[in-house]
Amino acid sequence: MNPTNSTTTTTANPPTVSRALPPDQISPKSVVLRLFKLKDVAKRNWRLLLILTGIGAVIGFIFDITHKQAPIYNSSIMFNLGSGSSSGGLGELSQLAGAFGLGGGAPDANIFSGDNFLIYARSRPVVEKTLMKHDTINGKDTLLVNYYIRHSGIRDKEWEDNDTLRAFYFDRAKLPSEYSRTEQIAMSTIYSRIIKEITVKQPERKSSFMTLSCGMEDEHLTASFLTTHLQTIEEDYQRKQTKKTREMYDLLNTRADSIARILSGTENRLAQYLDQNQQVVVAQARITETKLTRNSSFLTTLYYTALQQADNMRLSLIRETPLFTIIEPVAFPLYKEIKASLGLQAGIAVGLFLSIIIIFLRETYRSIMKEG
Predict the structure, then answer these.
(1) pLDDT for the residue 361
(2) What is the mean pLDDT of residues 73-82?
(3) Which ranges does the record mark as transmembrane (predicted)?
(4) At CA 324, angle to CA 323 and CA 326, rounded to 5?
């Protein structure tokens, strides 16, 4: 009897075992399934999504209407800044400086070179001088700073919560040293606003042209401020550039006036002496007459020389004065810029964001309730 043989069953083709994907990988199947789930979520909550987005859009639209921004009127002036020529009068300045015992009389005509002029044109002292000037706007002579207060929008924005400044006006044109405390605060706020509204730039680095640009809420205010500010820059810049020459010119005029007074006194004494001693032949009298005559002739020569020097200095002053040439003036109508309101877009975005959060919380709660 043969022993029973145990048989071992072996499988030729073992079953295939599916391996799970790593947690950092997503299969295409799972992506499709999630998209179908999102589609189902959108079908269940489309009314909520539409309602909340619509409410946000309505709130943003109302905000745009109640906070409508005023249009900005932009314009610019292109001008050329030509430096004064002092080469022709350099010799004369040196001679005149030597006559007064000074070492070089030629003024520095390039004080504001390079980018210094761009900073200077927007500086507070120059802007304040512009605001304290009168201009004819709509047929009325108006102090520019008061017109700015009325039409720039500063009372409804920066001064909205200050009743004192909302009713404030300058009673007349003043120097900064004459400002009261309220006027100092008002001017400081005005300058802080204007410095954001004006720009001075050089269109081309190789060109001497400059562009003064401005954008304000009133068309006449923009045009008037640009024109007046350029005039102020020109006057103040020329005065600073020719300061040394003007001081020497004033000195020469003072010297000529002093010589003229001395000459007049000498001539009067000579005339009186001649009237009183017409028949006198004494030598002492003749010597006195000769001294008075010599002094009169010498003073006359000095006087005419001083007048000639003053005239030459005046011509040098004209040659050294920087020349402002307007290339493109302000042209009406000005460019009207209407800033787009973002309330409607922001309302839609906020409403959509809130609706997504609410739908997420709602679906999460629903999923938990199903599992429970």
Answers:
(1) 82
(2) 86
(3) 46-63, 342-361
(4) 145
Where are the chain's structural domains?
43-68+341-371, 72-242+322-337, 247-320
Q: What is the spatial distance between Cα 272 and Cα 267, in angstroms, rounded to a whole number?
A: 9
125: preceding bond cis by omega (within 30 degrees)? no
pLDDT digits (tens, 9 = 90+) for 257-266: 888 888 777 7
Token look-up 């001539």 returns 267
- pLDDT tens digits for 166-208? 999 999 999 999 999 999 999 999 999 999 999 988 887 777 7
Q: Are 107 and 242 in contact (CB under 8 A)?
A: yes
Total residues found in the chain within this entry: 372
CATH number of this structure's domain 72-242+322-337 = 3.30.1890
pLDDT digits (tens, 9 = 90+) for 275-285: 666 655 555 65
200 Cβ contact partners less than 8 Å away, ≥ 6 residues apart = 117, 118, 121, 122, 210, 211, 212, 213
Q: What is the mean predicted confidence (pLDDT) over 202-225?
A: 87
Sign of CA dihedral 35, 39, 45, 47: positive
